[in-house]
């Protein structure tokens, strides 16, 4: 019975990973589609490929942060297998619900922060505030602000450097060069997306396994977790969330290939660097900041700040909304267990 429950929760975690890729596909392909460098179908295949190969060079520092840096793993494990399973199930369902809602609304919210919010909300009824790791949550909260600012800064710098480098060339030659270079920048960003986002689900799966059937083993990330999580997020990216592509690639600002290259490179470098430090950040926040940075080099009016404002409100509400949804799922799940018993 316990093994069956564990397998089901791991499957739910991989479903979340798939939805993460589906929801965040826009982050990887919006610029390359909006500049017409690749068709939508080729763009998602390109992004999915690099999402997957990130498994072979991304490391597992973010996975360890998600597994033991948000909730007190040892304290949760001491509550027993049932507590571990219901907390993780509620966390995942709260995050999935928020991701699907924001996808439906066409808002690029953060899957990373939805999962973190779900974990916080589901843990509170079981362990209270002492079950939360304050330093880890503070780090994630800080980078809600810092990651888009860093992305904006690097996107702006990349745009200015790129523009200065080719300022003596004809527009046709610049367009041709950067259409080719955007394939590279899109690959960089898709690799960074896989590196950062797939690791979060690895951490969740590790909590489930090492908190239940493998209690006697030390917490670590196995190779099969890495491969399965990258495969799930790549598959989700392949199916793509087209509603959000429109918001990111067309509604926020108008991008030429040189701007797409600058935004993707700036955002991708930011995410890879932070992943190497073990900091779970939002690819959505980072690429949005980079796109705004690129757009702002053409003047304040080049960015549609009303659209940016809608995105920011989605950021603000993601953690509390997914936490609330996780609490509701937890309460319903406990009620069903009581009735069954």
3D structure, described in words:
It is a single chain. The protein is mostly helical and 341 residues long. It has one domain. Helices cover 80% and strands 0% of the residues. The protein has 13 helices and no strands. Helix 1 packs parallel to helix 10 and helix 7 runs antiparallel to helix 11. The longest helix is centred in the middle third of the chain and has 40 residues. It is elongated, with a radius of gyration of 20 Å. The model has no long low-confidence stretch (mean pLDDT 86).
Overall, the morphology is elongated
Total number of distinct structural domains: 1
State the order of secondary-structure elements, H for helix, E for strand. Answer: HHHHHHHHHHHHH
Distance between the termini: 15 Å
List the helices and strands and how they pair.
Layout: H1 2-34, H2 40-53, H3 61-68, H4 73-78, H5 81-105, H6 111-127, H7 134-165, H8 171-210, H9 223-239, H10 242-251, H11 257-276, H12 283-296, H13 305-340
Give structural attributes.
single chain; 341 residues; mainly alpha
